[in-house]
Amino acid sequence: MYGNDFSAEDAPGGGLLGEVEAAEVALREAAERGRRVGAPGPDQDLAAYFAEVIEADQKIEPRDWMPEAYRKTLIRQIAQHAHSEIIGMQPEGNWISRAPSLKRKAILLAKVQDEAGHGLYLYAAAETLGISRDELVELLLNGRQKYSSIFNYPTLTWADVGAIGWLVDGAAIVNQVPLCRCSYGPYARAMIRVCKEESFHQRQGFEILHTLTHGTGAQKAMAQDALDRWWYPSLAMFGPPDTDSTHSAQSMAWKIKRFSNDELRQRFVDMCVQQAEILGLTIPDPGLRWNESRQSYDFTQPDYDELMRVIKGDGPCNRQRAEHRRRAHDEGTWVREAAVAYAAKRAEKKEKVAA
Ligand code: BYC
């Protein structure tokens, strides 16, 4: 079960990784080529220039002029994304001390640590838009910025760690691969690295479930129970249906989002069906069936009223997640203070050497 243990088509996220590599090549080529749309002339309308860069599929960089609403939308989305990575450490962190073997514990530790790293890349990308990390953290702690709905559900069994890897990281990849081509350079570049790591995360979740489904009857039942509980919340991660999505149209026009919420949700369902078959698990949807004319699966939509309730703070674990984050932040004060003191000391030393 280790190494290249699935054929290219079977490998969870296998095809998507190819798209990440293509996006990375496109980013490099664009950087080497320089801007086809040159710098704005002295009399050029900045808004027209911005529109031209977007139209030419080139990147907006922090130094560039951008509409205030574009900047605000990016801060909202990137911050929400960063907060999700940080809060997302909690449900899995819950199992680090109870992982069933030393090897599982080491893998889970590394994965949770990766999520912290993703949060850092994303906070750094948001900072290029003129907001500080302290401000962003404050907005999370006082509940004025959101994080993904999915992390308000509990992890009741070890199989939930597998389901999070397979489904939640799987949904995250499907959502994030197109963000590698986002029009804002720092976000696109952060996404390339994040997606590569998420693809490993998805595989580790798939592998946990594969082990359970090939174990005892009780282990297989545990895996099925986890899928039953995580399936619809994972579908809801993609956001409200297109008809109710307030930001999609504008974000797509700005090429921040490349596909709508419903398009990505459909892509995720289509990807999971085959993988569930390999696992020997049943997706808990009696309405799931292949639609020949659409060349996609028909499926039952998640409960969007539940999604809205969870987003507004009334999910099974919202309070617990927020309290835990606030406590961790308070308990980490001394670490932040020590890091600032250390940086000041080093700067002072450097100055003395230079003098
Ligand atoms: N949860 O107009 P819409 C991960 C909000 S995975 C909470 O469609 P947009 C990880 C939305 O913010 C998760 N809120 O919005 C995996 C908006 O509210 P406001 C993180 C949600 O932005 C494993 C309102 O509903 N991934 O990191 O065009 C381990 C209307 O929605 C949700 C990302 O953040 C939700 N599920 O589209 C550890 C990816 N869905 O702000 C970590 C980047 C919607 O108007 N984000 N809302 O009050 C995106 O791609 C987009 O922001 C979304 C939503 C697709 C999520």
UniProtKB/TrEMBL annotation:
PANTHER family: 1,2-PHENYLACETYL-COA EPOXIDASE, SUBUNIT A (PTHR30458:SF2), PHENYLACETIC ACID DEGRADATION PROTEIN PAA (PTHR30458)
Gene Ontology molecular-function annotations: phenylacetyl-CoA 1,2-epoxidase activity
InterPro entries found in the cross-reference section: Aromatic_CoA_ox/epox, Ferritin-like, Ferritin-like_SF, PaaA, PaaA_PaaC
Protein name, as recorded: 1,2-phenylacetyl-CoA epoxidase subunit A
Record key words, sorted: Oxidoreductase
Pfam families with a match to the protein in the record: PaaA_PaaC
Keyword Transmembrane helix belongs to the record: no
Listed Gene3D superfamilies: 1.20.1260.10
GO annotation (BP), single: phenylacetate catabolic process
EC number: 1.14.13.149
SUPFAM superfamilies: Ferritin-like
Classification lineage: Bacteria, Bacillati, Actinomycetota, Actinomycetes, Micromonosporales
GO cellular component terms, A-Z: cytosol
